[in-house]
Specification:
Helix content: 25-40%
Number of helices: 9
Distance between the termini: 13 Å
Mean pLDDT: 96
Number of strands: 8
Order of helices and strands: EHEHEHEHEHEHEHEHH
Strand order of the largest sheet: 1-2-3-4-5-6-7-8
Number of domains: 1
Structural class: alpha/beta
Shape: globular
CATH architecture: Alpha-Beta Barrel
CATH topology: TIM Barrel
Strand content: 15-25%
Bound molecules: zinc ion
Length: about 260
Amino acid sequence: MLVDSHCHLDRLDLSRFGNGLAGVLDAALGNGVTRLLSVATDLESWPALARMTEPYPQIALSVGVHPSEDGGRAPTVKELVALGRDRRVVAIGETGLDYYYGCDSAIRQQDWFRIHVAAARELGKPLIVHTRDARADTLRILEEEGAAEIGGVLHCFTEDWAMAERALELGFYISFSGIVTFKNAGQIQGVAQRMPAARLLVETDSPYLAPTPHRGKPNHPAWVRHVAEFVARLRGESLEQLAAKTTANYGRLFGIEVGVT
Ligand SMILES: [Zn+2]
């Protein structure tokens, strides 16, 4: 039993699957993936995401605005809290900081990040944090805004052990995507090896970042299995052991009944 702790079901090209979203979920189940968290990236597409996933109790949702989504409506604490009260919303995000393309929007990104942390604290729900080339500011804002009170996950982790350690101290979980399977990902693989089992998650971030052996293709939740197999091998564990731990972690972090302890 595996969980895809971070995917974007509303960004998938459903025409590739026989039966639309049901086909995506069938393929996932065929690989042992029984639960998914579909993560929001803006407010405009949230109602459609909520609607398309409504029939499927195995899909949990988050609400938030990705730091790079500057074309749409800016988030407010009030709106995030209002949407976040939906019982299917288990987290706030994805939020965070991405300076990969430069720091021009750094102040705007930091404002939005603080707004998400405030909303998460008000709701008592964890954060889904995206961070790229912004280690110091990400950690500083999480500390300044009291994010340790609610915790969360650093998703699609691409940083070093020092950053992982600081995040663990703040009570955060760390999630690995298909990037960990790439040949040049030695540093990330080292972090996955050292991670305490109780804070480890796996994800696809689909439709992006397909893992080896599907690198470059449109990704989908079934392929979290390749990420899990790879991380299990790195850690000298069986797939079953890693699946049980990451599923239990998912349940604990997001308050979802998963039947594994
Ligand atoms: Zn994402």
